[in-house]
Amino acid sequence: MLQGFKCEAFCSSPCPSRPGSDWYLVRVELIVTDVNDNAPEWTMVPFPYLAVVSPEAPPGSLVYKLHAHDGDEGGNGEVEYFLSDGWAAAAPATVSVVAGARPPQFSNSSFTISIPESTPEGQPFLVAPAMSFQKHPLSYSLLINPSSLFSIQPETGQVSLTRAVDFESDQHRYLLLVRASESQDALSSAAEVRVIITDENDCVPEFLQSIYSKDGVAETVTTATSLLQVSASDCDSDLNAELTYHTLSPDFSVSAHGTIFPARPLDYERPNHLYEFVVMAVDKGEVPRTGTTTVRVRMSNVNDEAPEFSQHIYRTFVSEDAGPNTLVATVLAKDPDGDGITYKIASGNEEGNFVIDSQKGLIRLRSSPPPRLQGLEYVLNVTATDDNASGGPHPLSSVARVIVGVDDVNNNKPVFEKCQEYRERSSVLENQPPGTSVLQVQ
Predict the structure, then answer these.
(1) Residue limits of the Cadherin domain (predicted)?
(2) Most buried among 283, 315, 342, 415, by the most CB within 10 A?
(3) Cβ–Cβ < 8 Å for 50, 95
(4) Measured at the alpha carbon of residue 286, what is the angle toward residues 284 and 288, in degrees to the nearest 5?
């Protein structure tokens, strides 16, 4: 109990006794005095209070020892005992005294105990002790023993199981009646024992199916779309049977109720067009147990990817005098969705010198009329368009550039542009020395 304490207080007002100071210190000591606010409480055991006395006991013989405790201090905590005449300031204790022999008394009038279902057979889980007023040895037995599930040690009163119990299949509450007997005087008494079997987290969550499958999931499915439902059960009870679901797959998520959702965009273009992952069901036991199942999601194709050329830019050369049908270049594209592809020269072929095989991607010079190549190079923009066989809003296409360089050929002879003028103006005087300039031609 708190009897006293000290504290220090500061004051910010001007202190008359200390001119010029704007604070001063006051030390206060408080002493708490006790108040008689606690009533005495009886501390004897067992209850009820029973006693025996020999019919031949002389005056002054001890019959029963009373004891009470008062929580107050000093004189307020001192206890006096007296026999009540019907009125008392505190609750009286009633002592039943019998002159002669009296049956044994248990430490409690009834016992209640909870034991886990994992309690081993033969291991004592309760002692139901009794006392003999005659100081005679006692023998314990079970008057009520449901299904002979329990046994008791005759000498000690220790109660144990005769077999293992299972919370999931056995009943959960049992009522026993224990008897304590004095063989010498044939005196006995009985006490009730209530045994409650509690659940242990001994069941592993089990899924209804070892494999869950979902086929034909479009790769355009959104993360808000539920794909399928998994479900598990646990034969335990309460928190031991409450389950949560989890997966380590980065591609999928699972709700608290076992609904599977995509966690990000899915792709048809993966091995076997299949996602396979594990879902776990975990109970909420103190030591959680886990069950697992396999989930397989098979994708269906959607035309969501354009064809891809083997190169973004193709470079090639062709002679300027190349004839009709000369092979110039080959372009190649593949469609990730597996669709068919059609090739087309989209631009750069305004003179029509080039043609392309729409299925094979072969670029040649035209057959008729004969091609006429001019300039240093041609830049052809070639498109690859899928046939949308995998299904989609519309066909998809991509573009590659084909740069065709034109090689020059020596197929033109020199030509004098002013031949007639040279003929008319060319003359030289006689007797000119060697090296004299006559005429400059080009």
Answers:
(1) 45-207, 217-309, 310-416
(2) 283
(3) yes
(4) 55
